[in-house]
Design goal:
The chain is of the alpha/beta class. The protein is built from 14 helices and 17 strands. β7 (about 75-85) and β8 (about 90-100) form a beta hairpin. α3 (about 170-180) runs parallel beside α5, α4 crosses α7 and α11 packs across α14.
Length: about 450
């Protein structure tokens, strides 16, 4: 069975919410919709205090090409345009809206009918995706219209749909495939039309056999689309690892997938593209997983953007007794949340509750030069060396040793027998080196 060639680990899967049908979170009295919850420049507010808005109405206009529109997820009155702490602890611009009913824009098709035929041109599809504020929902939240517009001289040969969902606990993509399989396949055909490719492969890890069978059956009616079951291995959901697993092509250091003729799109993003193009529906909600070993009813929930995570948790059983850490996202690549009074964002894939025993960090010891971190690194880096250089602020050396290639998967920290906080130091070094690189580029201009 196919998988990537370099590194990788197999953490405990804990897919506790697998098979749980998607439930909808009830709207609260107020939502706070961030104007910067994706990769790129924040959008500019186009509403002001006192304005009445409907579901799907534009409230934040993209500021430049690498930016994304933001739409109201509710109907009601704008209370203010202010700043709000996000999941990372930074103050970001946001639109505060008091909810009044649930009135949608008339242009949005709310019928359950599946629109299988796409009659729009490539240019029209791209415009619809850009207008709808679609970003990557697999974690990076990069504006989709940018990813679907390869640079001059580059041509896509194959579209890869990332349905791996290799993070422990998370099952939102899995359940989306089971409930919205047909719509996802239509979304794949739309993306194929944009990229002008005749081949698409949906990569799914083999621990989701029902999804493999379900989408394989549907794909029989869609020429050029195949489903590829993959060996269970973390972090196979990384773009470069998935391309290696499916195409046996390795993306060069510092390059992007189009360099080897591939474009990778997350399966939830693909569904959002379907809704944007065929239903005129902007990205105003997404499915997320609520899970943890002490959570009484782990599940998958459809949540409107801007709903406080505290409200989501309240409606799904509350914080379990004995919780030691709350993680936004999965336990490998997610970030600890200081509190739950932060709004649901486009990249919010889940909330995982970790009990006090498992949340307790073991005391780190000296590196014993076992090289386990080197063996498991999927990018072929030397994590122990990068950590040492980060501790000593050796930024030039870190850049030379390809720290920017790190995908922050956490495999190194997971496997370290000395409990060294490898990823923490590498993240710090990577962010610093990234700033130095951008400063150099700016100075050249």
């Amino acid at each position: 069975m196919k998988t990537f060639r370099i590194g990788g680990i197999h953490p405990e899967e804990n897919k506790l919410s697998a098979g749980q049908r998607i439930k909808t979170i009830t709207l609260p009295e107020r939502v706070v919709i961030p104007l910067a919850h994706y990769s790129g420049r924040p959008s500019n507010a186009v509403v002001k205090r006192g304005d009445q808005v409907k579901v799907g109405q534009l409230i934040g206009k993209a500021d430049g090409y690498v930016s994304a529109n933001v739409h109201s997820s509710v109907s009601g009155k704008v209370a203010k345009v202010d700043v709000q702490l996000d999941a990372s602890g930074y103050k970001r611009p946001a639109v505060f809206i008091d909810v009044e009913g649930d009135e949608w824009l008339e242009t949005i098709d709310l019928t359950p009918d599946i629109e299988r035929k796409c009659h729009f041109s490539k240019e029209e599809i791209l415009t619809k995706i850009q207008s709808a504020g679609i970003v990557g929902l697999g974690g990076a939240t990069f504006p989709a219209h940018v990813k679907l517009s390869p640079p001059p001289g580059k041509k896509a040969e194959v579209l890869i749909i990332n349905a791996v969902e290799c993070e422990p606990y998370l099952t939102c993509d899995h359940q989306l495939m089971m409930e919205k399989g047909e719509e996802i396949l239509v979304g794949v055909t739309i993306l194929m039309k944009v990229l002008e490719v005749k081949k698409a492969v949906i990569g799914i890890e083999n621990n989701k056999k029902d999804a493999v069978e379900h989408l394989s059956k549907i794909a029989q009616s869609y020429p050029g689309i195949s489903v590829e079951p993959l060996k269970v291995r973390y972090p196979q959901g990384g773009e470069k690892q998935l391309i290696d697993a499916i195409l046996k092509r390795q993306v060069p250091s510092g390059k992007i997938p189009i360099e080897v003729g591939a474009v990778v799109m997350n399966v939830a993003t693909t569904f959002a593209v379907y809704e944007a193009v065929q239903k005129e529906k902007p990205l105003i909600e997404r499915v997320m997983t609520i899970s943890g070993k002490d959570v009484k009813k782990p599940g998958n929930y459809l949540v409107r953007l801007g709903v406080y995570l505290s409200e989501v948790v309240k409606q799904t059983g509350g914080v379990p007794k004995g919780t030691g850490k709350i993680i936004g996202g999965g336990p490998m690549m997610g970030r600890s949340l200081m509190n739950l009074d932060v709004p649901m964002a486009k990249g919010s894939a889940g909330i995982v509750f970790v009990n006090e025993k498992e949340a307790l960090r073991k005391k780190d010891k000296n590196c014993i030069r076992c090289a386990k971190c080197v063996t498991v690194c999927p990018m072929g880096l030397e994590p122990y060396l990068l950590m040492n250089q980060s501790e000593r602020e050796m930024w030039i050396e870190m850049e030379r040793n390809r720290v920017m290639d790190c995908i922050e998967c956490g495999s190194c920290s997971y496997t370290c027998p000395s409990n060294r906080p490898l990823l923490d130091y590498i993240r710090y070094g990577k962010s610093t080196v990234g700033l130095r690189i951008r400063k150099r580029q700016t100075e050249k201009v």
